[in-house]
């Protein structure tokens, strides 16, 4: 087994200084509800402060991605601040039962609703019995 450490001078003499070259991208993971009905799945995500024009919903390689920017609030002297404002990002893996060509989304009052309809072959159907 190889050793993974590098020998350094006495730790008391070495001060580690990390230079910040840019602010790291930070995302919030929006809470979601996922419901199933006879037509498909509905994903409801809470994204308060999201800007409608920056909401990006993509499907690539069976991965549904929800990404959005938020409206920046001016800096204030808060007495108490319980939530953070940052862009939202969340991903879900889709099964074969979802018709990727018919995915739809709507956004209203900070709530994003993504409708994922079942593919036609996956919907239950009634088989007619004919008399021969």
Keywords:
Immunoglobulin-like; disordered N terminus; four-stranded antiparallel beta sheet; mainly beta; three-stranded antiparallel beta sheet
What do these coordinates show?
With 132 residues, the chain is an all-beta fold. It has a domain at 32-72 and 83-122: Sandwich (Immunoglobulin-like). 0% of the residues lie in helices and 31% in strands. The chain is built from no helices and 7 strands. It has strands at 32-36, 40-46, 56-60, 63-68, 88-93, 104-108, 111-117. Strands 1-2-7-6 form a 4-stranded antiparallel sheet, with no helix packed on it. A hairpin with a 2-residue loop joins strand 3 and strand 4. The chain is elongated.
